[in-house]
Design a protein that fits this description.
InterPro entries: Alkaline_phosphatase_core_sf (IPR017850), PC-PLC (IPR017767), Phosphoesterase (IPR007312), PLipase_C_C (IPR008475), TAT_signal (IPR006311). This is phospholipase C. The longest helix has 15 residues. 16% of the residues lie in helices and 21% in strands. The protein is α+β, with helices and mostly antiparallel strands and 684 residues long. Helix 7 packs parallel to helix 14. The strands form seven sheets. The chain has a nine-stranded mixed beta sheet with strand order 8-17-16-19-20-27-26-23-24. A seven-stranded mixed beta sheet has the order 5-6-1-7-11-4-12. The chain is built from 15 helices and 28 strands.
């Protein structure tokens, strides 16, 4: 029986009445304008990170309005044939995403799933991404809805949700948290790395708090000490799920912190906390620091197991915990006006997410990169198979601050190292452990903010009274049964405002009739790097991955002799970018390229063939079609007005004379201003 009894729970929570997400302090502070001393990131004086446990993006937010979820109009098909949604068991049974039928699903103790290095690599299956059910089990496809987790959905509607935020590592908790706290998991082989599991043996590479300390930037870990933050107390991971830190303060697996003594910053800032066992409330220290205006410049919060949202604990226990963190941070409006809170999840547990993550090419046969990828591919060892370190699957990220209100979606590619990158951008302390490849493709989270924002409307959040744990017990896991007749769910109706991004990717194709080859040329644009996934509908040696740094380009060539003289290549890039190239080398002649021009897109038709090309251009958003005639040796430009699609486009070019010829251009034109989510997302 846990040592914390029910009667003490309200006291531990720091509350004297029922749990309320929207306390008077939150409502009051949410109505206050943000700090606008400079109108830039310099106005952020406090960064707080609450990293919860083990949920994928689709598992939580696949149904959410206006994000890339179940209604994604262009899911990848990296294995060829059907899209990633169509996962099958070993006996061929298909299981699509499904909503378990249990009552009050947000309060269920859902079963935990495999989420280690080996089963993660199995699910990825060298990038074909088609072995999730054999590797994880059928519960991998389970998801929750607004009715199950209303507080999480309300946070997304009130602030900013990131729908391209990935965990860093394909595997378990500790390596992902090492990425958050140090920029890698010892990938260079130094200091006891690389670490591919929850081994916790004691490591010696440099962590980011050490760099902050050297630079004079204040920092702190907020946690409960459990039975002691030492080896005897298992560093905070204890059997009483309502105390301790669940082992989620992974700094305590580094020798510098383990060997520290009182008076050392590594002890005082990372090995102290509340003492619930002896009468403290969970949030006493956080509330006191906020009230006294001594919240550090950078803080991390590690919740007790019961509130961590680990899959075998109720999501809404976590909702209550998050609401109390918000209540503490907003209890002093002057502090909240200068604070950015990031709420994310260390890894996906074993829950499926449909967006194939950016991956580095393992070899030249699997793609190319303009930047070194050696630190992001594990070559194998005596104990672990080779594989990708990451990126891992998408996980939820909620950006909660006075500068991120409005219910926006931010679709820039991020991972846990992006949290450090945001800290770098604000305080200038660089983390050299972050690999060049991750710096090339993952942003710094600044795009999730509008530092010019002066909106003072309050953000109203639902009440969490009903989420009080009914006892202090562990409960049996709930294992849902998939429906016998599966169908792909759709999303909530409506669009969502979208944060402006810096992407301007382009991919051009060209067929060489004489050589029997087809070449793709990739560029990410001048400002932001990009990762591309190439799949084939008529070859089995893919998929292939490509990374281009900002301002750089690369190309690769496919020999059509291996596919009966035809090519069928689809390219997926950031924020719904898609290019499709199908045809035969024997009839190669006219080619089409696409470029973003202002608020529109320009298609350029170049005919190097001997005959006149008459092509049909179809606009998927406006519904209009037109004919483009291109004489031999001629070039024709067509600029497409994108107002009908709100700067989203879906353009298809075909030829009546050559039915094999097919080009498709899908994406979004960025112009530095906010937009809306993809209107092609399928909704209820």
């Amino acid at each position: 029986m846990p040592e914390v009894n029910r009667r003490r729970f309200l006291q531990l929570a720091g509350a004297t009445t029922a749990f309320s997400a929207l306390s008077a302090s939150i409502e009051r502070a949410a109505a206050l304008p943000a700090n606008h001393r400079s109108g830039s990131i310099e106005d952020v004086e406090h960064i707080v990170v609450l990293m919860q446990e083990n949920r994928s993006f689709d598992h939580y937010f696949g149904k959410l309005r206006g994000v890339r979820g179940f209604g994604d109009p262009h899911p990848a098909a990296p294995a060829g044939g059907r899209s990633v949604w169509h996962q099958t068991t070993e006996d061929g049974t298909e299981v699509l995403p499904f909503h378990p039928q249990a009552d009050d699903l947000g309060m269920q103790f859902l079963e935990g799933l495999p989420h280690g290095w080996s089963d993660g690599q199995d699910a990825y299956h060298d990038g074909t991404y088609d072995r999730w059910l054999p590797a994880k089990g059928t519960t991998t496809m389970a998801y929750l809805t607004r009715e199950d987790i209303p507080f999480h959905y309300a946070l997304a509607d009130a602030f900013t949700v990131c729908d391209a935020y990935h965990c860093s590592f394909i595997g378990s908790t500790d390596p992902n948290r090492y990425y958050m706290w140090s920029g890698h998991t010892g990938n260079d082989g130094k200091g006891g790395g690389p670490v591919l599991g929850n081994d916790e043996l004691g490591y010696d590479w440099t962590t980011y708090p050490e760099r902050l300390e050297e630079a004079g930037i204040s920092w702190k870990i907020y946690q409960d000490i459990g039975d002691g933050l030492d080896a005897a107390g298992h560093w905070g991971w204890i059997s009483d799920a309502y105390r301790g830190n669940y082992g989620d303060n992974s700094l305590l697996y580094f020798n510098k912190y383990r060997n520290a003594r009182p008076g050392d910053p590594w002890y005082d800032k990372a090995r102290t906390g509340t003492d619930v066992k002896n009468g403290d409330g969970y949030f006493d220290r956080l509330r006191a620091d906020v009230a006294a205006d001594r919240l550090p410049q950078i803080s991390w919060i590690a919740a007790p197991e019961a509130f961590s949202e680990h899959s075998n604990w109720p999501s809404n226990y976590g909702a209550w915990y998050i609401s109390q963190v918000l209540d503490a941070l907003t209890s002093n409006p002057e502090v909240w006006a200068k604070t950015a809170l990031f709420i994310t999840y260390d890894e996906n547990d074993g829950f499926f997410d449909h967006v194939v993550p950016p991956l580095p090419p393992k070899s030249a046969a699997q793609g190319r990169s303009t930047v070194d990828v050696s630190l992001d591919v594990f070559e194998g060892s005596a104990t672990h198979r080779e594989g990708f370190y990451g990126l891992g699957p998408r996980v939820p990220m909620l950006v909660v601050s006075p500068w991120s209100k409005g219910g926006y979606v931010c679709s820039e590619t991020f991972d846990h190292t992006s949290l450090i990158r945001f800290m770098e951008s604000r305080f200038g302390v660089r983390e050299p452990n972050i690999s060049p490849w991750r710096r090339a493709i993952c942003g710094d989270l600044t795009s999730a903010f509008d530092f010019s924002r002066k909106d003072s409307r309050p953000a109203r959040l639902p009440d969490t009274d009903a989420y009080e744990p009914q006892d202090r017990e562990r409960h049996p896991d709930y294992r849902p049964t998939p429906p016998a007749d599966p169908s792909l769910p759709r999303q909530e109706r409506g669009l969502r405002p979208a944060r402006p991004l810096k992407y301007a990717p382009a991919v051009d194709g060209s067929a060489d009739r004489e050589a029997g080859t087809f070449t793709l040329a990739f560029t990410a644009g001048a400002v932001a790097g990009a990762a591309f996934l190439v799949t084939s509908g008529n070859r089995t040696d893919g998929p292939w991955t490509y990374t281009t740094e900002a301002g750089k380009a690369l190309s690769d060539t496919w020999n059509s002799a291996y596919s009966d003289g035809t090519y069928d290549l689809t390219v997926h890039g950031p924020n719904g970018f898609v290019r499709v190239f199908r045809g035969t080398n024997a009839t190669a002649g006219c080619e089409v390229t696409a470029r973003h021009i202002g608020d529109d897109i320009r298609l350029t038709f170049v005919n190097e063939g001997a005959g006149t090309a008459r092509l049909r251009l179809a606009d998927g958003h406006s519904g209009r079609t037109s004919t483009v005639t291109v004489r031999p040796g001629a070039t024709v430009d067509r600029t497409i007005d994108l107002r009908a699609g709100r700067r989203w486009y879906d353009l298809t070019v075909t030829s009546a004379a050559d039915t094999s010829f097919h080009r498709r251009f899908v994406g979004h034109v960025e112009n530095g201003r906010p937009g809306v989510s993809d209107p092609a997302i399928a909704t209820d």
